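Service request form, structural biology core

Requester: graduate student, group of Dr. S.
Request type: structure prediction, single chain
Budget code: on file
Notes: please return the result as structure tokens.

Sequence provided:
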Amino acid sequence: MPEQTGEFRGFILDDFQKEAIDYLLQGYSVLVSAPTGVGKTLIADYLIEEAVKKEQRVVYTAPIKALSNQKFKEFKEWHGEEKIGIITGDVVIQPEADIIIMTTEIFRNILHQEQERLAGFSHVIFDEIHYLSDEERGTVWEESIIFMPDNLRLLGLSATIPNAAELAAWIQEIKEHPVKVVYKKDRVVPLEHYVYHPLTGPTGFNQLKKAWQKRKKREGERGSPAGGERTWKGLDHKELIKSVHRRNGLPALYFIFSRQQCEVKAQELSERFDFLSADEKKRVEEILDHAAKQYNLEKWPTLHRLRPIFLRGIAFHHAGLLPALKEIVETLFGENLIRVMYATETFAVGINYPVRSVCFDAPTKWDGVTFRPMTTLEYFQMAGRAGRRGIDEKGFVYILADLDRYRLEEFPSTNPADVEELTSRFNLNYNSVLNLFHNYNKEEILVILDRNFATFQARNDKVFLENRLDRLAAELEKTRSVICQDWGSLSCPQMRAAALRQLRKKERRLRYIRGKKARRAISAEIRELKESLARLAERDCSPAEQARCEKRAKTYERLHKERLSLEEQMRNLKVAGRFEADLEAKAAILEDLDYLDADGNLLPRGKFAMQIYAQELLITELYFAGFFHEWDEDQINAVIVAIDYEPRKGERLPRNLPFDYRPIRKIIRDLIFRHGVGEDEVRFFPSLSPLAYEWSRGCDFFELTRSAPELQEGDIVSGFRRGIDLLRQIRTACLGEDPLMAAKIKNCMEKMDRDLVQVNL
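Core staff response, request fulfilled:
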């Protein structure tokens, strides 16, 4: 027990860990907000161990499959295979085990379809719960919390977020049981933040700004370089790594938001540096040889290409790598045989590989649409990997400051107090609407739609605005009471002076106007202004009085403008019924498609679609059009990998598809243009289809990749695994109603789920 020993798995527990564990043991739900790398996961590990001892059941959810797979392996080693299960859509192992690891999407799906399976569970763990604020996937987290049984207790693990208390208050409100918030603000290993430029070396933002301004001034005096060329040739990643190495900052994790650049830069660095001793190189060779035999990679060209890079203590990691190669890289990194790792952002999610230094190639990132500055939360999520507990006294973070490309204001804040608040990303998709109509009546649905975090935040915003408006009203009244009663009238010297300036302006204007009507109008304005000035006597105020009055008047005007702005926000703020219009719109489309009847009851198409959790409309239309019955198993696999596939930049449609694309295209066009479905809600891009077809027919993976050198191995595997996930959903939807099709789909899955594509757990 931590409150007695203060130890768990050889670690001395920090106060925040003991506090969280004590709350859990007392039966509370707990939300932990703490920096990356301080040991949040240890709390979850303790809860799992206690559950195993007490023969309780726990769900562990993770945002990505890689993290789910990692936790599955860890828990199996600690608690035995019979106690641990995993469900990730494409992998199902012991789904009735006491400890079930799953992606958050799978947990949401179970809540909609098979909530009775959660009977007997005591806790659900949400790892990386700040994903609730993710633009694309945040809704999954919200739905999971909204629909989870009230008797379940929640453990939410989050990066540092300023409004953790607000999130906890929302959970407490909808689950009707207390939720404790545990904060850990300081890191065990503090971070030092730097920007790097050859002009200054590692330095702070202010120092670099001053040096940069001096340099630009000198350039301006002697003229800019011809042709607008870059003015500093030594700025690159190798110089930064050289500086980090000199400062004893290795091992280093170098984040680049480009897969291609990860590989290019790793190769470039390996041509200049060798970080490993002879004994370390021998160990690398042993790991590579073992993995090559284990995964049959002896003839795999990518491994041979990477071997010399690995032998110099350098590697790269991104989603385009073959899973077996990613495992090799992670093994080498875990044994401290990689001194510099070039990686994309995904390496920072949950996987615990701390280093001494974290480097960033740029302050901006590609978000799928455009390059944008990193948020402070994103920065700290990655920067938090720096600093090894028990090894390093400090962790170091560097950003390569290419000021010929980026402005200083584009760099993220290094102050944890500037981390952005979590905001709701709740939205309704067609699957959610179908499941709502299946499980609830219309009145109940409207109540449920008001239980989301967005509505909760809107209510809080309303209360805040009302309170602020009340305070503003009092401030305005107080400010007005100390302003001269003649303020705003022509008796006020300042108002009078302004009126006289206006009068002179109008008189000058009158001289140049020739039109009779216009002259009469201006003349009338002049006459009226003179009469007003004559009626009112000027107040006798000293300059000091005028200055004081002017200051008070400006304060009043500022407060008045703020009030008008807040009143506008109040008028536009919608609390109740925020999603009612969206519900009605989607229900109308589903009724038009014969998924729902006029009373909101599900028809056969709707019952099928409610069990499909991606591209449900397209898959359902293809199924009910009979295409899955007409296609053979290999064609089905070729089609399924094209559904919900997001092509990378530059990917092209293959010329020769193993199926007729025309009827599929017609269905897509009908959904969009006839029924009003959004284009982003119907995705079909068959770049992997020819490969899936050949793979389904038994083609060797090495031969397969040779036919499509423009596609990365990891993307091929990921696309195939996504296809297996969709096939599993289709099979579930067919069971009971169409057993022959269910058997056919099972054969499709078996054809895809083999060799290097198969997950090795």
